[in-house]
Amino acid sequence: MRSQTVEWPYLTGKSAYPPPDPTAPGFFAGLSRLFPSRTVNLGDRLTDLNMRTPFRGLDGWESYHTPGHTPGHVAFFRRSDRVLLAGDAFTTMDLDSAVGTLLKQPKICRPPVPATTDWNEARISVEMLASLKPKTIGAGHGHPMSGAADQLQYLADHFTPPAHGRYVAEPAQADENGIIYLPPKPVDRVPAVAAAVLAGVVAAIAASQIRRRHDEH
Length: 217
Fold this sequence. Notes:
alpha+beta, 6 helices, Metallo-beta-lactamase, Chain A, five-stranded mixed sheet, globular
């Protein structure tokens, strides 16, 4: 398995992450059209995690390389109380649902669809995290959950990629220098349709104003 250092290019400003896929199904995928596209540069504040030994400042925590959502994604687990910090390896809310997203109803679900770039790796990572049998789970999207190990195991046993999307048939590929391959960009008709609808609304308003002025004279 590759090192989590494949995440470094995106944290040092060397490479942008693979672009999110707004054509994938689900509410959150649609919202991804509005996501900002930028990189960050954390410079010398980055430190390589040794996956086999405790990390300074994280006594009692084990780190796990959990690629799928991103190439170098990691999760943290503390065996003393079986707390799992899953990041975006999966979520504790249903981002595919508008209601689930707005209300943040507690539910163990697959990782964020528009920005998960390797679904086979994502499945393997979820299976591995489920095997830890965590008692308390915190994720990047959603509220912390207790007693959700069975839900996580169910997700692992029935892990399903989205029905379609840029990264479903083949993943993005990356190395220590950043992105080296992106699947072809799918056609996104929504912006053109939205522009046409907006143009129609503007034209209708303009026509209404012209008629009103004509009637006044």
